[in-house]
């Protein structure tokens, strides 16, 4: 568009120069009518040239403003391209992070499912509908427990044999539980009795040893019961 306006301006200037040259040539001629016609044509051409010049100037200004707008639009387009590239990079990064988060979520979901399955199996094995008495709950240890309970709940004949020490009777480790009473026998070693020692004389007794009690009287010391007379 600017190039077309420049060509129009150049053509208008050429026409103006031609009009001026024709006006000068007509004024020097002998005929008065020819000179009057040439003067009118000269004025008309001059007016057209002036209007063309003004139009050309306006077109030039419009072309310059268009060029400025084009440069600003190019700068805005470059900025938009840079922002678009940055947004694409961020979008790719977000997609990668989203993929990693999805994988992590799947792993956690699988782990949670395994934990729930194990927990459900444990609960069902303990208190669920598949429990079939103490044997199912205790497993192989239930037999040992039942054998131990049978040992504690032996019949009266076995208890008599154990207490009496008859032939073939062998007391078990819990034989004392089957005996009379519930007191466990004292298995501490016995110590020999020590002879009483005479008390030493003190200042309170005037240097004389304290008299021993008569043989007919009994004393109680250290929480021991008095012997029978």
From TrEMBL:
Biased composition (Low complexity): 61-72, 190-205
Residue ranges occupied by any TATA element modulatory factor 1 TATA binding domain in the UniProt entry: 54-126
Highest taxon, organism lineage: Eukaryota
Annotated stretches, region: Disordered: 19-72, 156-229
Listed Pfam families: TMF_TATA_bd
Classification via InterPro entries: TMF_TATA-bd (IPR022091)
Protein's UniProt name: TATA element modulatory factor 1 TATA binding domain-containing protein
Species in which this protein is naturally found: Prasinoderma singulare
